[in-house]
Amino acid sequence: MKSTSGRTVLCLLTASLLAVLDAGAGEVAANANTAINNPAVSARRMSDLVKELASPKYAGRLPGTAGDRQSLNVIVNEFKAIGLSPAGTQDYVQPFTTTIVEPDGESHGNPENPLLGERMATSNVIGIIPGNDPELSDEIIIISAHRDHLGQTPDGVHYPGANDDLSGLASVMELARLFMQHKGGNKRTLMFIAYGAEEQHEMGSMHHVAHPLPDFPNENIVLMISIDMIGQGYDKWSSFTPAQLSRYANTWFDEVYNGINDDSDEYSHEYPPQKEATFSYDAGPFGKIGINNRVFGKAEGIEHYHKTTDTWENVRFAPAAIVTKTIFDFLWKVDQDPRAHIKP
User: Fold this and answer.
1) Under CATH, what is the fold of the domain 7-336?
2) What is the pTM of this model?
């Protein structure tokens, strides 16, 4: 199931020594020649982004608020700096509206949310790296996280949403940087998305599925991944050997197209094709229409989940960087797979 043409590159990527170079920087090598040719996955860079967007300046990034709009500008500028090509309906942006249903006072302790029930305008942010294989470039791999969170309480205490889901957003940014280093070598089109209104019952990803981008139809999406909360619960990854990390990447690859709803490890799972109206992750709307998907993240038993204490200081960036590098190895295998996967 491995790519013959990409085997040499894959060996370099997956057999290289995975090293945290500095406890402060937390940089994880992307390949054996990272120090010379490529930037590493940077825990420091991930930390900087999370610290900024989790700050009171963005007031918890509730869809349609000033904090939401300010965070949008940060993300668009990051996409531009990385070099992603715009793929939204308006440059990098795919606008939509949503109804505020969270925080609802029961599940999040915000009984006087002044925006509850209001219709608010927000957006997804979308950039791509075009594919280069004449036979496979129409196939799309979505790499996503969500950018919104729960706003603030009536007395002005904000929900930072550092782990949920700025940790995932920072991971998506690092993955985009790594793939840009291999631009020209990727076979398929790689689509990077920061979904809006995920906390409002996945309205951003539902809007995407219901309103496919003109040049990127749903039937061409061969894999959708959602990275949602990798900032806690992954401490063991700092002690995993390169061989253990490689086994995770290989297992995820083996499970992509096997037609089984795999949940083979505690750190990720496939979202089953349930016929539900709302979902628990942005992968849900894609799973519902039969698109291969995988969710990376832990919510069960995670401290600070949907609380005002989900702060930058409580995110574990070094293991999150290692997880991100392993996801890259997995996605590289998926991208380099020589088989066509668009369903006829």
Assistant:
1) Aminopeptidase (3.40.630)
2) 0.90
